[in-house]
Automatic annotation (TrEMBL):
Keyword tags: Kinase, Transferase
TM stretches of this protein: none
InterPro entries recorded: Fructo-/Ketosamine-3-kinase, Kinase-like_dom_sf
Lineage: Bacteria, Pseudomonadati, Pseudomonadota, Alphaproteobacteria, Sphingomonadales
Family that this chain belongs to: Belongs to the fructosamine kinase family.
Region annotation Disordered: where it falls in the sequence: 1-30
Organism: Qipengyuania profundimaris
Pfam family, one: Fructosamin_kin
Name of protein: Fructosamine kinase family protein
Gene3D superfamilies assigned: 3.90.1200.10, Phosphorylase Kinase, domain 1
Gene Ontology MF, one: kinase activity
Length: 268
């Protein structure tokens, strides 16, 4: 990984002594590097890492635990390495709730983000909107239509046409992680739930709650701690649907049944 050496040295003022790939990461990989000054840092490469760095810094400003960003250069992002620890399952969910509550604040910005993002080859448009239902319809549902089979596309359009009846137009805005699942949470050895690999924007915080239910089963105490708005359970399939549509485009038709399951739950 000699291509990392020059940008990392420019960012950290220290050379790489040792570098090894980190496990996991279906979309983008990362490596752990030990620097000659003794520090250990995480290095990510790719076309979107500068946007990721800006997202992490925005999240850090809320007080949410995220890796400190040392800097980026030449499509190379250098971050703090978070040491993970063995944390009790109950404590993990409690810590995660505390982390997500940090992202709930007062935001004057419209829903969306100042730049689009991408998960591998799947674009994530973030055009700003003052109406949350409009934002979700245009940037999280209808944008996928050219990539869906005719039957699924028809059902997604039917849902989109009714979205103003199903989603609030102006929920309390929050800075959402946007791609929150177990693989994007590091349970640190100091007990914190640290968020990594964001796909962040100003949105409805129920989005993060929904994505956590795709591959996991959070306890009711976790949702109680988040103090979500009345009726949040009925909106969860709408928010999960975007994630499943992304999975279909990233990983193939094996995820189509998850898309249709959410549409069935919603009655479309």
């Amino acid at each position: 990984m000699t291509t990392d050496r020059e940008p990392v040295e420019q960012i950290t003022s220290s050379a790489i002594a040792e570098q090894t790939p980190l496990p996991g990461g279906d979309i983008s990989g990362a490596s752990l590097a030990t620097l000659t000054d003794g520090r250990r840092v995480v290095i990510k490469r790719g076309p979107m890492v500068e946007a990721e760095g800006r997202m992490l810094r925005a999240m850090a400003e809320t007080g949410a635990p995220v890796p400190a960003v040392h800097g980026w250069r030449s499509h190379c992002l250098v971050m703090e390495n978070i040491e993970s620890g063995a944390i009790d399952a109950h404590d993990r969910w409690q810590a995660l709730a505390e982390t997500l509550l940090c992202l709930t604040g007062s935001y004057d910005e419209a829903f969306g983000w100042d730049e689009d993002y991408a998960l591998k080859h799947v674009e994530v448009p973030n055009s700003r909107s003052g109406n949350w239902a409009d934002f979700w319809r245009d940037n999280r549902l209808l944008c996928h239509l050219p990539h869906l089979d005719a039957e699924v596309a028809k059902r997604v359009v039917a849902l989109a046409e009714r979205l103003h009846d199903l989603l609030p137009s102006a929920p309390a805005p929050a800075l959402v992680h946007g791609d929150l699942w177990g693989g994007n949470i590091v349970h640190a050895n100091d007990g914190r739930a640290v968020l990594i690999d964001p796909c962040a924007y100003i949105g409805h915080r129920e989005v993060d709650a929904a994505s956590l239910t795709m591959f996991d089963n959070p306890p009711s105490a976790f949702f109680d701690a988040l103090q979500l708005d009345h009726g949040w359970q009925g909106r969860q399939p709408i928010y999960r649907l975007w994630m499943w549509l992304v999975h279909v485009r990233l990983f193939g038709a094996s995820y189509r049944s998850a898309v249709t399951r959410e549409l069935d739950l919603l009655g479309f």
